[in-house]
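Table S2 (continued). Query chain:
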Amino acid sequence: MTNEVRDRSREILRAEFADAAATFCAENGFDEVTVDEIAHGIGVSRATFFRYFASKEDAVVSASRGSAGAYARRVAETPAEPGTAAWAQLRAAAESMVAASEARGDVTRARIRMITDVPALKGRLAWERRSEQSALADVLRERLGDDRAARALAAAAVSAADLAWQEWARTPGSRLSPLLDAYFAAFGGLAEITLD
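Corresponding output:
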């Protein structure tokens, strides 16, 4: 087995364990369960758990990390249509992540609520989002040739997505795509807002 295949297998297992751990914690309460209980609940030993994760926070946030870097990859892989606004391309690139979230509706909603309600998880997710924002800014910088614009667009797009996911998680029966449209529109119109 080559190192590349071994690393890929490890990443697949890590993603599966993270998914199971996040579901277990969302169902049982993050603060109420120990690492030993999570490991037992997902069918692995404590030693195996710690081979893949540094902490229970790491395991839970890793389940959300699946999209980290994926957004930047989608933007990089999307052909730049001449004359299309970068902001519109950023919104379009988020659509497949929307579909993945809605496909697992209640599970994803419960995870988002857990992450935003638990300070340790919220802080950890914020750190992860900075990495995602940085990766997106790198892609945009290559396309735009403007560092400030790339960083501003990346920060705004990640923030718009986060706000949409949070509202969707707390609004039963809502659809994520229209919420994402609404937040992208709101961010796009910020320069026109006047203060009384």
